[in-house]
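ugh ok so i messed up the first submission bc i forgot one of the chains. this is the corrected input, ALL of the components this time, i swear. 887 residues overall. if the numbers dont match what u have on ur side tell me asap before i send this to the collaborators (the ones from the other lab, u know who)
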Amino acid sequence: MKPDAPAGVMPRPEPFPAAVPRQSLGHRATGLLFSDYFVLYLSIAYFLALVPFLPTLANPANLANLLSNMWPLLVVAVGQTFVLTIAGIDLSQGAVAGLSSVFAALLLATAAPVAVLGNAPVWGLFLSENGGLLAGIPGATWLAVAAILALGALIGLANGVAVAVLRMPAFMVTLVTMIAIAAFAIWLTQSNNIRDLPANFVALGKGTLVSLYFGAAEESQVARRALHAFVTWPMIVAITVALAAHVALNRTVFGRYVFAIGMNRNAAEISGVPVRRVIVTVFVISAVCAAIASVLYTARLETGRPTLGAGNFLLDVIGATVIGGTSLFGGKAKIVWTFFGVLFFVLLSNTLNLMNLSAFHIDMVKGGVILTAATLDVMRTRLMRDRAV
Amino acid sequence: MTALLSFKALSKDWFGVPAVSDLTLEVARGSTLGLIGENGAGKSTLMNMVGGVVTPSDGEMSWKGEAYAPRSAADAAVRGIAFIHQELNLFTNLSIAENVFIDSFPKRFGMIDRTRIREDTAALLARLELDHSPETLVAELAPGERQIVEIAKALHREADLIIFDEPTTSLTPRETARLFDVIARLKAEGRTVIYISHILSDVKMLCDEVAVLRDGRLVEAGPAEVFDVGRMIRSMIGRELAGMFPARTAAPQADVVFEAEGLGQPGVLEAVSLNVRAGEVLGLFGLMGSGRSELARVIFGLDPVERGSLRLGGRELAGGPGARIAAGLAFVTENRRDEGLMLDAPVAENMSLVAVRTFGRGPLAVLDRGAHELATERMRGEIGVRAGDIARQPVKALSGGNQQKVVIGKWLMSGPRLFILDEPTRGVDVGAKYEIYALADRLAASGAGILFISSELEELIGMCDRVMVMSRGEVTAEFAAPFDRVKILAAAFREAVA
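and heres the new structure output, hopefully the right one now
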């Protein structure tokens, strides 16, 4: 405590984290624990620790794969971060992604096999042997992307209105949306995937701007698989979304409202924060992010897949966000945290795959890691409180 | 008569602040004791010690002649002490019979013996003249009937002492009359009753003994005959204060800033009209449940109102808090932790929350961080918040008084014309209280109107130009300085004092 601390200030045993003089090891350790970059350090340490045992981990091909797995997940997790910040949760993101994927294919497919899709309720209405609704129209890809984002926004709007205006719990609302929309997406195509997406759409998921080549310089011909995608369209989209989200959350009035609602909804309301409007907007952001990610995934898979967001999708999104450090109780979030959380989660999945573990083992380990992260979060909060008050 | 319950030099400190000190009192078996005192006099702490919820710091209690140190509420219940609280402890989703037997279901062959609980409960209800089947869900009962169920519960446990804490606040006159009937019957059965109430005429009518608490001490106790209502009130207040309040620096101006006319909301407000002039501090006094905080919420657009109109600076007020803040209202609520502050957020962010949109630049409302820092630093100086780095330090690390200054500061930033201060000095130490009073005075001197709501009569007398009194949702009286505290209290208690 400063000796000249004026009267009235509660005595506190330690200065605040940012002012921690980095002297002792203990200080250094807690400083690290409170740092925004904690999960990044953790990821690097994890990577370095495993490289000697899993040399393939550092292969350019694997790194390119790691990155390509990271971008769509980052977009969804950014959306989820907004919802968690207002102490809500959005379970419907996976279902939105699934429906968006089907929707994209229904609009854009250039052909469709009647043998596979002839029984689907959309056959004849949206889809025929000549493909989807917008097939062959110039600029169809952009029209379709706009339509998909609008669809996402609409679902988010429904979620938001139910939570903010009808005051239903976010968990219930989005659970119901998840169940209904996931089932609807599957029903639309009778659980079939739709292929034959146009090339300029597929480029959104696979298009490479900068590739790296690690072979001998004098080779005159380079095999396609020796080129490793580095800067891709998904990367640009994801980083743009993350940057925009960062600005929105930290540098705008809207962001202050989001945090205020998450920290104390009553106080926010009494202070004139347009609580309902902000909540609705947050759910719209979340669903639109899911729709954007769906475009990236769908293009990468070259398939409209109703079950795109099924299975572990939700676990990955919420797990990555929470590992980053965003609190499930609201009011505590940063986009960089989510970025590092996604990085760590993707790295974790990747290494577990490389270890040739079965899918079951992978999920068990992932579950354990999320539990550890949650425990760490509780400990961090407690430590922080002990230091602050 | 022997003492059923007695206290000997009983004390309770909360972090060094005495809530009850050195209290010695006996409650005779079969008597009815009226326990009175202002809010914060120590009544609740004392009863919580009896109920096993709070452990005394010093002194002892005895029950039926034996040393008594309950470890929990259940412990007290087993010994035969029952509480009838303002907020009833009933399970509304269960039936009357299930509530009565909740902690001791009789069993037959391992199953609840439904026939027996039904019959026993029916007998109890008949004794209390509550005309309902034991199977009726508590949710379907009126507040007064629920209270009778609580009493049935106490009787079922064969409680020797039944403590009523403000039992009539939510009752209609008819329900109140029935409750008094039941209490009279309990007395006739020889049970002992402690009756806590702000309604002094009820205390006078029901009780044989009266004990008056003030600042945690027993002021006086004696047979009810010697206490008239005037003496009770004088005994409850009984102190003179000087030098606790800053001198007011400016007189109220002529023009009316705020007007409320005929506000009515069934069960909450009854034709409430008031006006506040520029530079005026209007005090609003009332006991808990008098409707004072509800009035503030209605004015601020947080609660609905069925009738009446509100005008600020001649313009009709409408919409939610956002619109009313824009029109020039400010509301420092009585509960700063739940409604005033984002405890984990830095001081500066708390200060700027109300006015945050004024820092937005461009179509995306990007925060102008330089302007934000400048404005919050200026505000910190203006209200004298003692904190380190306000951009970093969370507001929860401040003392209560400084926290309250932050709440006031966040409203100052929006430049309001009417301030509603609801219990602005609650949980604040004496020094910070003075600063908050000085802040209120400065606000008034700068031309704002202030509606100062408080249950501490002293601060209203010390700070206000006028004081209005509310009781049961109605304005019962209005006083101008110099104030007569006995008359103000009498209006709040709805008593006629000669």
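quick check: Chain B has two domains: 3-237, 256-493. that seems consistent at least. The first strand of chain B starts at residue 3 and ends at 14.
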